[in-house]
Amino acid sequence: MKKLKFPSAQTILLIIAGLVTLLTWVIPAGKYETLGYNSADNTFTRTGISTTETLPATQQTLEDLNIKIPLEKFTSGDIYKPINIPKTYHQLEAKPQGFFDFVKSPIKGIIEAADIIFLVLIIGGLIGVINSTGAFDAGIGWLAKMLKGREFILIILVTILVAAGGTTFGFAEETIAFFPILIPVFLAARYDAIVGIACIFLGSAIGTMCSTVNPFSAIIASDAAGISWTTGIWGRFFMLLACLTIALIYIIRYGKRVQNDPKKSIVYDQQQQIAALFTHDKKAVNFNSRLRLSLFVFALCFVIMIYGVVFLEWWFIEMTTTFLVGAIIIGVIAKIKETDFIDTFVRGASDLLGVALIIGIARGVTVIMADGLISDTLLYYASSATEGMNKGVFASAMTAIYAGLSFFIPSSSGMAVLTMPIMSPLADSVGVGREIVVNAYQYGMGLFYMINPTGLILASLAVVKIGFDKWLKFIMPLFIILVVFTLVVMTVSCYV
Questions:
Q1: pTM for the full model?
Q2: CA triple 471-473-474, angle to 5 deg
Q3: Residue 314: how many other CB atoms lie within 10 Å
Q4: N- or C-end of the chain: fewer Cβ atoms within 10 A?
Q5: What is the pLDDT of residues 267-295, one digit of tens each?
Q6: How many CB atoms lie within 10 A of CB 64?
Q7: Cβ–Cβ under 8 Å, residues 82 and 35
Q8: Where do the domains of the chain lie?
């Protein structure tokens, strides 16, 4: 019998979209009323099932709606999206999605995810241009020579730096830019592509999972829960150090095995295929000042992107523009002809087209959920299931619930504003601090993010042409260790 081949990332996502479509026929439709703040006239807008009401933007209005959030969180812009109003869930007429809705969902998803898709394509173009100069290959060769015998430093350095970005400003989608750049470096250090993916992706996953000052998760979730973002921060910092240490030990041990015996690599059968992806013309390149300047501009693009996101409130348009301008400047420095520049840029962008499509199809899953009106129903069921639980059981259950909800709502900021007004009051009923719910939200989402097919893992793997099954083979032992460790810490934190 011929061995069955594991389906591609695109096929996996389409299967998931089909299953979610079927769920809209089984799960009742429903919706919470929402409350949004209007800065222009300093009012609240309460949106019901069929009515819209304007309310005064006062603390009393929030109290009357059972929303335990200080008014200044809205007026300052900390909470900028409409939030669900507790105890306002209404079941609605079923809105099951049909076959036509299913086939339209990838297209809708691509349109909704256009911002990140264009970011990925422009980054692909930039990489194509820098590769054509030969500067990147020369730089990788130099770095490999410098790290010879100390390659583990590369694992520690990359993982910690990416995790630092994750815990401070939610470094997630931006990491896609680093895969085609850093994977060749790990290959040159005699590691396999899995090690490179693990350092970048897991660094980001653990950093965002244990966010300390990340405005897109820790701060916005704390605000929506009605507590200070500093409440529970030391617990999250401890988790960051502990989980990062566990992950580093795991990656270094695996990487050492691969260095000693390449046949022990999970992707050994793809060794030549992966090497070919990142191998360019190896003709001798004079690493002159022009190439050094090109590499400097290339690296500067990422520095500017990070600075802009952290300090200037940049988002996808600004980030994408940075990489486009960077590609043009490198083209000028390298004296690439205009027609050659366009051809090289387009070829580079096309290399990441598959990644971009995966992102769009994944977004299509959430489109089906929203159109089928089942997201709020799942939230309502989840909140009802935890009422009156034991403290320790409650913490573990909330972590598991958030892991499950993240399959349907992969956005951290979206999850926070949708769920925290509903979930955080449940902490009061079982006698624990609301920071327990905030931490459960972060840990649950972060843990499942490592294997969530509707997140970024499939797009990340697609850059290197590695199947999801091979990633699962690598990650599952570490995933189980982190799950057990997290649940123990969450349970203990309820009693100390």
A1: 0.74
A2: 65
A3: 18
A4: N
A5: 888 888 887 777 655 444 555 677 778 87
A6: 10
A7: yes
A8: 34-87, 117-189+201-218+234-351
